[in-house]
Design brief:
This protein has eight helices and two strands. The longest helix is centred in the N-terminal third of the chain and has 31 residues, at about 40-70. The protein is about 80% helix and about 0% strand. The two termini are about 30 Å apart. The protein has helices at about 1-25, 40-70, 75-90, 90-100, 105-130, 135-145, 155-165, 170-190; strands at about 30-35, 35. The protein is globular, with a radius of gyration of 18 Å. α3 packs antiparallel against α5. With about 190 residues, it is an all-alpha fold.
Length: about 190
């Protein structure tokens, strides 16, 4: 029964993530004035969508790796994963907010959501990995597959970027663009 629940949770998570990516692209603002498109706004919106896409795609990859490590999932993991998916489902809205107005508030909200999602996901990963692997070297190997070499630094990095976002939101927006894309490329190199 628990194995079937894990399988259903995997399928449900994949479906939610696919829907989120679709919603984000459908919400891209495209302004047409007369016969011309406002290209600067379109490229700005596509850039922010790319960031959110890479963030969600990385989480999907990491989610798949973690849940491949588990044969079954306890009820608390089901609840935590549903909470994770709820927070992740807020990404299209926060992406749209930052697309429409890159301000101090929207950049901090976007960063805060990224931080909370990342921390919750780390909690899920830690719970699954620590239940399966009692040896710290084995745990470290799995963490490296999921996060790469810098898995301990990501929470501090998000906090530091959020502080910078308070003072320089447009600079942090560029950092938000670089981080997930870099991680996305790094994940493909590790796979």
């Amino acid at each position: 029964m628990k194995a079937k629940l894990k399988e259903r949770l995997d399928v449900f998570s994949d479906a939610i993530i696919a829907i989120l990516i679709t919603i984000m692209v459908l919400e891209l603002p495209v302004e047409i004035h007369g016969q011309s498109v406002h290209y600067a706004q379109l490229f700005h919106a596509v850039g922010i969508y790319l960031v959110s896409f890479c963030f969600i795609a990385n989480l999907w990859y990491q989610h798949a790796v973690i849940f491949n490590e588990a044969k079954t999932v306890p009820n608390r993991i089901v609840v935590l994963d549903l909470l994770f998916l709820f927070l992740l489902s807020l990404m299209p809205t926060f992406t749209r907010l930052m697309t429409e107005a890159t301000t101090q508030v929207t950049v901090l909200m976007y960063g805060g959501l990224n931080l909370v999602i990342s921390l919750l996901f780390s909690w899920i990963a830690k719970t699954i990995i620590h239940e399966k692997y009692p040896d710290k070297n084995d745990m470290r190997k799995v963490y490296n597959v999921i996060y790469g070499d810098s898995y301990l630094e990501s929470g501090l990095l998000y906090l530091g970027i959020m502080v910078l976002g308070y003072f320089w939101p447009r600079v942090v927006l560029v950092r938000y663009i670089i981080m997930p894309i870099h991680s996305f490329i790094s994940d493909s190199a590790r796979a």
